[in-house]
């Protein structure tokens, strides 16, 4: 231990360009270090102590990075919040995470301030990047503070929120290690070394997706702790991705299959005009990648494409280019510190080739769903946990996924939980019953379909469908709105009231290779 970790690297080489904002502004490591240090001093004076929470509603770029770097050296939990959420949804996370400070970028001022009000956080603990009425400028915290390292540094952690099938998101909270922040960061770099990623050198990591995703924070943060330059994108664009890869000699990124589909849709001339020779570790996950899409990307970019399967809770698999070529469609073999277990409905292990529920464990990693010991326990099998996915292992230990947990929708790499949408639609007076599920979408993987049983005397119509979707405005993020609404005379339910969602869902998936 002792050669990696952002704070250590920045002190040794303050001139290294550690981050590039979406507008092209470059930030040197020494400047980011000074900003993070000043923020720690300011928040400590505000009363924050190790174990407290800090929330950020900020776009990709250096401001969010400073929050992350401050929290992770002061022993705080940092929660980046999805900026597509509405005020009440934001407020729930700020309150549930017990945030001692909430940072809002002026771009997200309207919903951010609604969230602050809904959360009950004291107004003097709400800070603005930019100008927001009712929030204090961040400079209130940092002006006049020393840019020297704070005393008693201790490792913090990120606490991302993962939606539960009950519709309320849960914070995945890990015990704080008590380690020196740089030593903890160096341990984190194990993740990228699994893919063969090397530290320092002329390496740049392209941040293609919003920083509120667990994997985006994890991979970007780890690359930074290895001394790589983070190049941030604001809104993802296929050709802009290629331009940035050439401009900054990008060596690694974290992507989802939707990105691949859009890149492959570019005209051949556009695809050919950029120099992509720097690419070494282009890592993808979050949704199944159709086999033809993966083959086409390997043909174009060569053997720099790695895949993995994991969960916010910990543990996972990795598919190297060579492994995937041997077994197309696999999500790989278990990480060296991870273990896979496939069990039947009686929770007994099944033989190779037999589908069952996928359980994982990761050595030395504990977690809990904050405030929900029942959910934590329900997902456990001794020291393994599951997110409810169905899959099988072949004789050589390569994992293949057959089906996602039936209820979860994965659209563009984002997990969407239908119960939350169903709960909002059920309150509409013209709805007697409702079911929400994912149907195939060639671009996004899945799109959201709602099937509604209208209230007695209410005729189904396109106008009713539009009214129901519109009723979600201001209550649910737009990405959770159904793309289409079908009507049914009577919802298929068992006598005990359990909805037979597969009866509704299966016809849309007929003829598909896998229902995922």
TrEMBL record:
Check the record and name the InterPro entries matching this protein: AMP-bd_C, AMP-bd_C_sf, AMP-binding_CS, AMP-dep_synth/lig_dom, ANL_N_sf
What sequence ranges are listed for the domain AMP-binding enzyme C-terminal?
420-498
Q: What's the superkingdom here?
A: Bacteria
Q: Which UniProt keywords apply?
A: Ligase
Domain named AMP-dependent synthetase/ligase: which ranges? 7-369
Q: Which PROSITE patterns match?
A: AMP_BINDING (PS00455)
Question: Where do the record's region annotations for Disordered lie?
Answer: 138-175
- Family of the protein in this entry: Belongs to the ATP-dependent AMP-binding enzyme family.
**PANTHER family, from UniProt?**
ACYL-COA SYNTHETASE, MEDIUM-CHAIN ACYL-COA LIGASE ACSF2, MITOCHONDRIAL
Q: By what name is this protein known?
A: Acyl-CoA synthetase
Could you tell me which species this protein originates from? Streptosporangium longisporum
């Amino acid at each position: 231990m002792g050669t990696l970790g952002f704070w250590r690297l920045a002190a040794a080489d303050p001139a290294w360009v550690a981050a590039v904002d979406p507008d092209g502004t470059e930030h040197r490591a020494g400047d980011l270090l000074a900003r993070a240090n000043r923020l720690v001093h300011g928040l400590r004076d505000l009363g924050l102590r190790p174990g407290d929470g800090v929330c950020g509603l900020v776009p990709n770029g250096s401001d969010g990075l400073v929050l992350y770097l401050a929290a992770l050296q002061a022993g705080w939990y940092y929660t980046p919040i999805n900026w597509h959420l509405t005020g009440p949804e934001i407020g729930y996370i700020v309150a549930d995470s017990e945030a001692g400070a909430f940072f809002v970028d002026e771009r997200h001022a309207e919903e951010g301030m609604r969230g602050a009000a809904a959360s009950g956080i004291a107004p003097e603990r709400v800070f603005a990047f930019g100008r927001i009425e009712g929030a204090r400028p961040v400079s209130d915290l940092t002006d006049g503070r020393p840019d020297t390292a704070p005393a008693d540094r201790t490792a913090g952690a990120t606490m991302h929120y993962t939606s539960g099938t009950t519709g309320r998101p849960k914070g995945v909270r890990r015990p704080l290690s008590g380690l020196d922040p740089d030593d903890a960061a160096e341990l984190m770099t194990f993740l990228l070394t699994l893919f063969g990623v090397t530290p320092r050198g002329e390496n740049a990591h392209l941040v293609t997706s919003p920083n509120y995703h667990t994997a985006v924070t994890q991979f970007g943060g780890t690359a930074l702790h290895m001394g790589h330059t983070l190049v941030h994108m604001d809104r993802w664009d296929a050709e802009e991705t290629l331009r940035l890869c050439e401009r900054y000699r990008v060596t690694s990124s974290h992507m989802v299959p939707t990105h691949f589909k859009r890149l492959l849709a570019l005209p051949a001339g556009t695809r050919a005009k950029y120099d992509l020779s720097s690419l070494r570790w282009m890592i993808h996950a979050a949704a199944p990648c159709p086999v033809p899409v993966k083959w086409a990307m390997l043909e174009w970019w060569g053997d720099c494409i790695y895949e993995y399967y994991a969960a916010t809770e910990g543990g996972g698999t990795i598919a190297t280019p060579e492994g995937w070529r041997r077994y197309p469609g696999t999500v790989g073999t278990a990480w060296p510190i991870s273990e896979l277990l496939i069990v039947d409905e009686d929770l007994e292990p099944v033989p190779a080739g037999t589908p069952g529920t996928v359980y994982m464990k990761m050595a030395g990693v504990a977690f809990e769903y904050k405030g929900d010991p029942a959910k934590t326990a329900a997902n456990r099998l001794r020291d393994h946990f599951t997110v409810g996915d169905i899959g099988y292992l072949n004789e050589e230990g390569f994992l293949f996924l057959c089906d996602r947990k039936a209820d979860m929708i994965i659209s563009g790499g984002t997990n969407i939980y239908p119960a939350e949408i169903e709960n909002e639609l059920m309150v509409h007076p013209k709805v007697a019953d409702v079911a929400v599920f994912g149907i195939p979408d060639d671009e996004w993987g899945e799109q959201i379909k709602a099937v509604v049983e209208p209230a007695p005397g209410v005729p189904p119509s396109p106008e009713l469908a539009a009214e129901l979707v519109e009723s979600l405005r201001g209550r649910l993020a737009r990405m959770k709105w159904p793309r289409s609404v079908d009507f049914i005379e009577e919802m298929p339910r068992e006598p005990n009231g359990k909805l037979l969602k597969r009866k509704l869902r299966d016809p849309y998936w007929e003829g598909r290779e896998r229902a995922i």
